[in-house]
Design brief:
The chain has about 150 residues and is of the alpha/beta class. The protein folds into 2 domains: about 120 residues, inorganic pyrophosphatase (n-terminal core) (Alpha-Beta Complex), CATH 3.90.1640.10; about 30 residues. The chain contains 5 helices and 5 strands. The radius of gyration is 22 Å and the shape is elongated. It starts with a helix and ends with a helix. It binds manganese (II) ion. Manganese (II) ion (MN) binds next to helix 2.
Length: about 150
């Protein structure tokens, strides 16, 4: 946290990004962070999303300032290459930003990822463990059930 604060203090140009088909938490977290940075007097901050987001999210303050990469690629590419700091919000794998991945990868900026999703393989592992748990308990449940069903 302290390190991040220092990086923000030092950065002049900051870009906030989020995942493809942005949803409420993507746009909400990006704009909230955008407002936070503006409030601490960071003037050169942009939110760039891979593609457009649903109209019902436009009620959020400054939603109209969000740059859609698929529509304003040239401008966005320049912002990425000029940035000192790039934030990745609400995603944890570059595959999730589609065509924008290349620009982020090539940017010389320091990149910070903040996400509430689990790393994909942990997610799979969790399902596997749940499966094992169910499979190992199944015989036990079955036998209980059978006993109860037995006629007296
Ligand atoms: Mn999301």
């Amino acid at each position: 946290m302290e390190e991040m604060k220092q990086l923000i203090d030092k950065a002049k140009k900051i870009v906030i990004t989020t995942h493809k088909n942005p949803d409420g938490d993507a746009i909400g977290s990006s704009l909230a962070f955008f407002h936070f940075l503006k409030n601490i007097k960071k003037n050169d901050v942009e939110v760039i999303v891979p593609d457009s987001f649903p109209y019902f999210l436009y009620w959020m303050t400054d939603a109209d300032k969000v740059i859609c990469y698929d529509k304003e690629k040239e401008q966005a590419d320049k912002l990425f290459s000029d940035a000192d700091l790039i934030f990745s919000l609400d995603y944890n794998a570059l595959e999730r930003v589609g065509d924008m991945a290349e620009a982020i990868k090539n940017a010389s900026a320091i990149k910070i990822m903040i996400d509430h999703h689990q790393y994909f393989y942990f997610f799979l592992l969790q399902f596997f463990l749940l499966y094992l748990l169910i499979v190992s308990f199944l015989p036990y449940c079955k036998s209980k059930f059978m006993k109860r069903k037995k006629p007296i």
